[in-house]
Write a structure and sequence with these properties.
Oligomer: single chain
Number of strands: 15
Number of helices: 15
Strand content: 15-25%
Shape: globular
Low-confidence stretches: none
Amino acid sequence: MKNNKKIPMELYIHIPFCVKKCDYCDFLSGPADGERKKAYTEALLAEIRGIPLSERASREIISVFIGGGTPSLIEAADVERILETLRKYFSFSPDAEITIEANPGTLTGEKLEIYRKAGIGRLSLGLQSTEDRVLRTLGRIHTWQDFLESYRKARQAGFENINVDLMCAVPGQAYKDWTRSLRTVAELGPEHISAYSLIIEPGTPFAERELDLPDEDTEYRMYEDTAAVLGEYGYEQYEISNYALKGYACRHNIGYWRRTDYLGIGLGAASLLAGKRFHNTDRMEQYLKDSSVPAKIRRDTALLTKTEQEEEFMFLGLRMTEGVSEEEFQLQFGVPMEQIYGEVLEKYENMGFLEKKGEFWRLTRKGIHVSNHILADFLQD
């Protein structure tokens, strides 16, 4: 397809399957047999084919993220079919970033070669910890050795852009366990590391247990020292939980924080398109039945007001270490940022939580630790 206007858009493809749900996970995912996976793949392809021309004709795809669940559980040939179908119906940027998530132990050399052949250039491996004891506590199905084997195979298959997920502040984890995991992974040299704190989500097995969690001071130290430790290995923090070697920041993630339009495809997938937010049904049987007519599976469509867009600009953009641009705010909304948010900006600048650098406002190191509270203050009454 020829694309002249080249309005950038991202695609998120949801694969809702996993071998076993982790004890902390509240994502829309779960185990399934081969027949269900095949049926879902066909429904996913039907949804892609059914996307209205009006939602794709003037768009250029700058990134694709295949997430889950564990996308590496479906047949690699089906991943290839999904990408072939996307390319048939959408115009892709020549340098589009294409990522697939995978869990250690679910990859083979053959799978990885098919991914590369399909144009996938970025692999995201869900390690979480280098300590087998911690992995068992989290309910993960792999070991550290499983991860090393998957990482080695990925490099052999030609992947030159690999992310590794790590999780801190988990039950029974000491400060030294966390810094050891950071250094062990950094020494492998992945291009990107995502380092998250555990969040106890309602409805998960963790929410029902009494957990031996690190105290608040230890969690603070874990987070603060993450940037320092990874900095020794050349990783730059570009977002609250993400670190990358120069040139390897995840463009798909940045698109979310910068409010680039994205279309979610698959069960429960969320979208931001032309000022509208909506998500697909999270009911599998409904999705399998009606996916070929996207209008039938979309839920909670809401056209964002100018105020809601201003709010999102601030509380999403401030997740980036670069911060939010006064110039871009003025261009998008036609008013100076300080006219809308001057009082809040001044309040947190005086408290040492925000700072201004050039035309950008950003969280300070001190501010990052209380970011949830600060970002909520940018919701207008």
